[in-house]
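Exercise: predict the structure of this protein bound to adenosine-5'-triphosphate.
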Amino acid sequence: MRRIAVLTSGGDAPGMNAAIRAVTRTALAKGWEVYGVRQGYAGLIAGNFVPLGARDVSSIMQHGGTILGTARSSEFKTEAGRSKALHALGSFGIDGLVVIGGNGSQTGAYHLSQMGFPVVGVASTIDNDLYGSDITIGVDTALNIALESIDRLKVTATSLERAFLVEVMGRDCGYLALMAGIAGGAEAIVIPEVETNPDEVVRLLSEAYRRGKSHAIVVVAEGAKYNAEALAAHFREHQGEIGFELRVTILGHVQRGGNPGAFDRLLATWLGAEAVEALARGEHGVLVGQIKGEVRTTPLAEVVANKKPLDLSLLKLNDVLAR
Ligand code: ATP
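Solution:
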């Protein structure tokens, strides 16, 4: 009989609950015991563990957030902190850990696995900045929330001939902004991966105005050098050239809180179940993700050493389509 633990870490992402359910029930089906760790790595260090039975994960799949809670723990970044976590795992007799989270969380998982503990990661972050999974749990739902907001802003923008600067999340990664911009029909997209000249955005907006557009949308990633606030300050100085009246909307955490859509529930289910299968066959120190449509494992050492590239040719496509 084995006993495993599961935790969620970093920013919450819609679909984490479906992953917890899949991990729990797949392990229970093997006759294993499962413990949930509350508040991510902070709870792992503190030994904040709760037993998870099949009924404990009933009716959680359709809800955003995570029933286990999540946290950011600076102590876990230290070897002393991780040693405390190992001690807590040992005292509960845990012999395998599933870490559901993003880049930082999988870096923590890598360091823990380097200390000899069997860890399997599950790719989950709305930022989609994790090497080892083409798409991560939560991205699709967050993207749809951003799109719904952009669609609504377009309606009011059209009525009043306004331009909206819409800032979306994504930390240092422009994926959400790029995809929301393309799917939302934005006039311009500003992301951290490309140095944007704010005068160029002014030019795009004023051209759109002169071409008779009744509205304009600029999607900006929070991590861009010119985020919404910096761009807005620049635009105010060039209001005369732009033509449109300007408004700023920062979507912020609204993007995180949604109920997961079908895609994220299914992805979380496949990845969560596979994390347990990996532990069962003795494979650990890996991340479970989706690559080219298939569920695959990638060594955590490779995950932390690589950066997932963003297809920047899509920016050019958007320039063409925004005409
Ligand atoms: P998201 O990007 O969706 O917020 P994330 O997993 O990238 O998710 P982070 O806040 O970067 O979120 O990381 C979560 C936690 O992982 C941190 O609070 C810390 O406890 C742990 N962690 C991050 N980096 C390291 C590291 N270098 N070594 C050990 N642990 C780390």
